[in-house]
Amino acid sequence: MRALVLALTLTAAAAAKASADPQTLTYLLSSDIDSLDPSWAYDATSQFAVSLIYENLIAFDGSADNFAPRLASVVPTKDNGFLSADGLTYAFPLRSGVKFHDGTTVTPDDVKYSLMRFLLTDRDGGPSALLLEPLTGRRTTLGPDGKPDPAVFDLADRAVSIEGGALVLRLQKPFDPLLSILAGYAHIVSKAFVAAHGGWDGRRETWMDHRNPAKESAALYSRANGTGPFRLTGWDRPGRVLALSRNDSYWRSEPALRAVRLETVDDPRARRQQLDSGAADVAQLDALQIPLFEKDPGVIVDQVPDVAVSNVILFNQRVDATDNPWLGSGELDGQGVPPDFFFDANVRRGFANAFDYDYFIKEGFRGRAVKAHGPIPQGLMGYDPSQPGWPYSPTEAAKFLQRAFGGRVWANGFLLPVVYAEGHDDRRLACRVLGRGLALINPKFRVECRGLPDSKLLDELRARRLPALVFRWVLDYPDSNDAVDPFLHSTGFFPRLLSYSSLRADQLVEAAEAEPDLALRRADYRELQAIAIGDAPAIFTADAPGALARRAEVQNWNYPPMHPFGDLYEATKLR
């Protein structure tokens, strides 16, 4: 089988030439692509790349609660009979004749395998839990002993079946967000292709060998064989460029673009310069950078309708101290922090009071943001602006920090690195606002703001090595459950990695997820918001819109729901 991954080297001159081509679109990313494996990737940038190469059973259609068929030929509803009256069984009749990029035909076995692989990969901090619980009743493939549980395979195998040419999913209990998750995750992959490259072969006896793989060991980390509108041409990881070409055998009409070039450029000024010169066509930016990009009359700045928790400052309560330079001295001696620095709630609450929210919104967003009230962003059920968050109060911050660690934090001070992804000025500003607020309270409190490439930051986060970081969580599906679970449930994305646990939060997240009564569900979310503020596992700073800049000649550009990166399938470039 011909390798689909080629070495790729593009000079700046070649990039400019590519952008001048009316059928090639150069897109400047602000963060690195972390992985191309649909069952492993969980950051927004990687998911964007994956969505160009692979397809799902269904897709969003115009709004967050409407869907269109993709590799399924029908979207199941109770009215058409493909969703059972009790909401527990979904049938997806499968489209026939669709080809993978290598020319092989998609089979029903490939579809079942793809769902099973998504469930059973279950990598640490990965997306598998999105479907594991509704389909198997388990939030993880691990048993009580912390080892992979063979019973999970059987649960998944019963929940995912092929019947009469349709994929059938059987849920443990009704779960309204299921279609939204399937519109963004569980992309269809080739079983034979994965197995040929050392991945799981689909057998019960071998799935544990491929559970929670190291990133670069995943079979589809840097190779791809999807059904989507673009195919992988090459990934130059050191050069931070991903090259895609049009899928001329695409089952829908071919995309207008012949090629797409995704390049990561950290510096927003460099992104703007390339956009101004015509060397690039589209560029990501933060709200803080909008005035910089609006200066060029040939550039259109779009406010992106994403659903996200922006500029959240996260605390690690149990840092892995093994050979960890992020801890400095590892002691409360003014030259570092101990591994359990944020386990003391007084530290977390003191930090939350030390952050000047109004200043951050004024300087960072020019009035385009509002103060956050917990993890639930504006527009979702449970968002309640009347719930007070932490106020900026140096006096109250001092009281908490004087009590922390029996007074040793106040007496000795600390040196704390706070990490953010390079290229994101708003996250750097959030770090600086926190550092300034703490230094005003006590000059012994020192914060160092350190930028890392996004993929490196994710590696360090997954290794539990970072004491604190500034992050942005783009929701997986438009439901408040995906705002509270990742931040507050003990098995959620961040609590698993940052050692936060609250029995009451776990109970409320699970109750709200299953609660059909909207009034009761809102009450659960209100209490969860209160827990998020009271426990302060993170500082929720501001709800801010995203933004994207594109040259005026880029046309037919739209933003499907939950796709803040834009849709390249219909995009064109004027000559």
What does this structure look like?
This protein is of the alpha+beta class. It folds into 3 domains: 50-216, Alpha-Beta Complex (Dipeptide-binding Protein, domain 1), CATH 3.90.76.10; 230-306 and 546-573, 3-Layer(aba) Sandwich (D-Maltodextrin-Binding Protein, domain 2); 308-543, Roll (Dipeptide-binding Protein, domain 3), CATH 3.10.105.10. Helices cover 31% and strands 18% of the residues. It has helices spanning 12-20, 44-53, 108-121, 129-136, 150-159, 178-182, 191-196, 268-277, 290-294, 345-354, 357-365, 394-403, 408-412, 425-441, 454-462, 481-488, 493-498, 503-514, 518-535, and strands at 24-29, 58-60, 67-69, 89-93, 160-163, 166-170, 230-236, 241-246, 259-264, 282-285, 299-304, 308-315, 370-371, 414-421, 445-452, 468-474, 538-539, 542-543, 546-551, 554-555, 572-573. The strands form 7 sheets. A 7-stranded mixed β-sheet has the order 7-8-9-1-10-19-11, with helices on both faces. A 3-stranded antiparallel β-sheet has the order 4-6-5. Strands 16-12-17 form a 3-stranded antiparallel β-sheet, sandwiched between helices. Helix 14 (425-441) links the parallel strand 14 and strand 15.
